[in-house]
Amino acid sequence: MHIRSAGSLSAVQLKMPSSAWLWAVSVVALTGHLFCAAAYERTERNCSLTPPYLPSTAVNTSVQLQELRAQMLPLNVSAYIIPGTDAHLSEYIAPRDARMAFMTGFTGSAGTAVVTQTKAALWTDSRYWVQAERQLDCNWELQKDVSIISVAEWLISEVPAGGNIGFDPFLFSLKTQENYAMSLESSNRILKSIPVNLVDQVWKDRPQIPADGLTRLPDRVLQRTWQDKVEQIRSLMTTNPYQPTALLLSALDETAWLFNLRGNDIPYNPFFYSYTLLTLDEIWLFVHTNRVTEELKAYLSASCTGSLCVQLKSYDSVRENLMTYVAQSDVKVWIGTEYTNYALYELITPQEKLITSSYSPVLTTKAVKDETEERILREAHVRDAVAVIQLLMWLEKVVPVANVTELRAAEYVNRCRSKQKDNRGPSFETISASGPNAALAHYSPSEETSRRLTVDEMFLVDSGGQYLDGTTDITRTVHWGTPTDMQKEAFTRVLMGNIEISQTVFPSGTSGVRIEMLGRRALWEVGLNYGHGTGHGVGNYFGVHEWPVGFQSNNIPFKAGMFTSIEPGYYKDNDFGIRIEDIAVTVPVHTKFGHNFLTFDTVSLVPYDRKLIDTSLLSAKQMQWLNNYYEMIRRLVGPELDKQGLQEEKDWMLRNTQPFTEAGSSASVCSSSLTLIALVFALHNII
Amino acid sequence: MHIRSAGSLSAVQLKMPSSAWLWAVSVVALTGHLFCAAAYERTERNCSLTPPYLPSTAVNTSVQLQELRAQMLPLNVSAYIIPGTDAHLSEYIAPRDARMAFMTGFTGSAGTAVVTQTKAALWTDSRYWVQAERQLDCNWELQKDVSIISVAEWLISEVPAGGNIGFDPFLFSLKTQENYAMSLESSNRILKSIPVNLVDQVWKDRPQIPADGLTRLPDRVLQRTWQDKVEQIRSLMTTNPYQPTALLLSALDETAWLFNLRGNDIPYNPFFYSYTLLTLDEIWLFVHTNRVTEELKAYLSASCTGSLCVQLKSYDSVRENLMTYVAQSDVKVWIGTEYTNYALYELITPQEKLITSSYSPVLTTKAVKDETEERILREAHVRDAVAVIQLLMWLEKVVPVANVTELRAAEYVNRCRSKQKDNRGPSFETISASGPNAALAHYSPSEETSRRLTVDEMFLVDSGGQYLDGTTDITRTVHWGTPTDMQKEAFTRVLMGNIEISQTVFPSGTSGVRIEMLGRRALWEVGLNYGHGTGHGVGNYFGVHEWPVGFQSNNIPFKAGMFTSIEPGYYKDNDFGIRIEDIAVTVPVHTKFGHNFLTFDTVSLVPYDRKLIDTSLLSAKQMQWLNNYYEMIRRLVGPELDKQGLQEEKDWMLRNTQPFTEAGSSASVCSSSLTLIALVFALHNII
User: Does domain B215-367 have CATH number 2.40.160.10?
Assistant: First the structure.
């Protein structure tokens, strides 16, 4: 799935179209009677008019603002900061954590709101400015510089010296708190941690925690029991030179991984609200204990207190329990700074009781799959390929003759996946985008924007599934008519990027950021580029972005057994978008002279659109990679299609995985053709 | 010049051979009478014998230790830390700053010494362990884990709780101080800043500051006067959103650059001891004022106090002057954290008077050359090529027939350079290394190690010159006999790395670390690699490593007009070493679709050893680059050789820059040959 660049860990699809596009629709719909300015006014607020103009999409936030301000008064808080994340610093959040959206009306995935007694401001990045202007009412000013420095400057201008600036420490990462503190440090404004969320106090119909609870993974998808994992992590604790006595797990996938449990508290993410404090001789699991069935209690040995017994504690008691633990002498708590919230961090004092690393040993251990995990994750991709092949085959047939919209295509692929064994729904909202829609960052179709697919436009589909055995994520871009030369060239260069990363050989321990440019190089050569990251980890029935694996600067070095997406792209504004995304696993490779080198083995198994490949641009090595890949698709997906009795799909697959003739710029072709020339000339001379 | 990897900024050549090599020599020299153990004992200390065995190279440090300990007592300091750097955190230091060497006897470039009342320990990295065992006496223990954590752990074990650990804040970077503070924080040991260096108190014959002083650069090598530069930097101060009132310059090249001055306080580096405090309306230059001639005083307008007058202040008064400045209200001092020492940093309080960036605006401005600087730096490389060509031609002639040692080769190239216009000596100690010596990191020959060059060994020469108009740095590896297949393959793959970086196209603003792997990729493919960085900036008569330009993770992004070395290599232990180093400048490049893209233009102009190039490994594009490069050498160096009347050198150059026939794996070759085949077949059919 499409990810943001520059180390960002957040990505949710944009639900609203760009204003430019809406304008075009309006003009068509209104048969030319309105100018663009008029059409434009219809979609975005205009607070400078009297009375202000508000589109129907704007949300009246006066009541919640008034109530929040009333909460702030007795606490003597001049400003209150409302981030867009949850207490686990999750990339995707549950509806009950959408506090920023509740307060502002703005539903974009990234933003920060700040409220004072007289003003309210929202900070969000350029992807969301149009959306914000459509959803905010005139209580809110929109701020476009999303740096914490900018928020701090605004705070300094609005909050008098000596004033308190309140925040919920559960919603701040260490880095966020540190950055605010640093920016406000010299200004005599006090950053005040308030562990009770003020928005929750005024959010009357805040969604409940789902009653249905946790499930354990079946043994057939597991190599390590939770007890094995606990012992593995404890051994990393005892070998840590700083000698931690406890490990605090805050990210939701950490607890889910450790106990081989899953939940469904967050859309598309099989997680459940939880923390874990793992000590060398105890295990404290913080959950909503009413959700833990008797069967699960037995599974977790919840009735004892030994070193392999899980003591269940109330989710909301994590702070007081951690405080009690830290109050003991001779304890040291290890945390991963990237996912621990400030509310827990601030309890671990004095400093000598704290041990930090960017990522907890659970996240770094989880990043390397065991044999079973690698095998079943590969298997999940075989079944997933069937669903995507079904979609592409169907579109090829029906687009030229019937009305298929982006939404219908998305529904179709979701339905295809749902028929595959062990499917647990999509792993994120399908991005199904035709023509100019595909050029929008984080687009996914809505009733309002859904475009009809035609033979005249390129179509991009980025989708994935959750399966009991694995999470998938794949993007294909296709054209059912005649692509332009520019489209073919851009597509081929994106593909070259994908191949160049996939086939590169590198020492074990190389960071993804050091090889990421191979995904861009063929584009750079002709002055093209793309504005997002090049890949993210995936795992076994987890979030579709499984950090810290990937190609971003804060990702950990590659070792054998890590799964990552590889997804270069190219986007031409108001015209088309191309992305090719495959999942690949790092595998050891034999080299002529050295040891401990890796390469990638692609596990996504769906052919690329042949029509869009200009083979004259490919090197012989790239062509060879492509043919090997196609041969692998036949070898792995063929039997699965047979097994599922999908003959038409098999024919389609075989047709689309015909080997390319090696007409590329090959050393071997060259030398053989040179030999041929020599032969022919020799022949000629004889004649 | 060869640089260390992983963001390290320090590199000086190892003066001592590895023990393995010395052992071989001993065995030969002693005609087999001694076993290797005995031979080994002769070169390294053995403190476990009674009495301890000390080689003749070991230095008796008892006196200086006793005197230092006496200095520590009245200050109540239980341990004293002695780093290897100077007050400007320079990469190379003057003899008078070699405090670690004075105290320990160990002369390696990297290390930290710590002294308590009863113990003394030296930390240095693996390059230097053998050297340390040869130079240390038994007062010293050698510690091999060079992390600050390791030093801190040792300190905690040796210093009682509540004890003071002293350090000279002038010799600590902010980061060093922070790391020590963090590691000691929880242990109740106090890190105590002592601004008077205790080693200096006991170093009776400490070298003086050279009496000869500063010189100004001639106008012909300048586009910007120092007044232009001051105004340029002030404009960066006024546009900085944090509104600094002053900029503190600590790195020696910052002051040298700003005033277009040079000195010679540090071997190979045209610097002079200095700091600058540049405010919006004053300029304070801290130097040894007795070294500033009347002419220079006039040049610097040192008799006035206006905004373009340089007020000369004593070098040793920098702390008190900075303190006075900071004591004023409404001042804010901007520092670059990478080169500011803790002694100055600790004065800038409270925090709101401090503004930091990794590098000062002088370093980031200096990194981009103006038109004149770019032109003259290119010109210096033309003359420098003449000297290196003279060396290679001479070696080719004499090595097969005469006794030429590594030392003599180094002297020869230094002499050749000295004859070139505006030469100011070598830019670092020449690395001249034959056979196994070239596989040693940071080797440069001594009388003891200098090997005779033969037709049976590869030879690596890494050398550079200081010229009034520019600093050069180039490495060539040659073979005068018959290289092995492995040597040819490794050389060719190193060359491919050099070419791949050189010809890559990338967006302006791309960090070097993101493209660095192109220098390694051809090696990685066959399981080879190298253990040092891939390049560093160079400039106009400055240090040979001109940071922050280069390919390391802490280097700034590339913009047009930056000069960097590109220097992949390969080293086979006890056998041979290969490095190919060229300087290149980033230049704008026209691309098919985009704008603001860059590529490299190589400015080093010396052909590579043809015998070592396996053209069958090169792609057509690599071959084309090579031929273009050779054509450029002919075009630029040819006329210079003519001008200097060097006909034999010109013939040699022409012979060694013959175009290669494009037998590589070329797309164009392929398509043309395929066309040929088609034609010939057509012809054939007709016949």
Answer: no
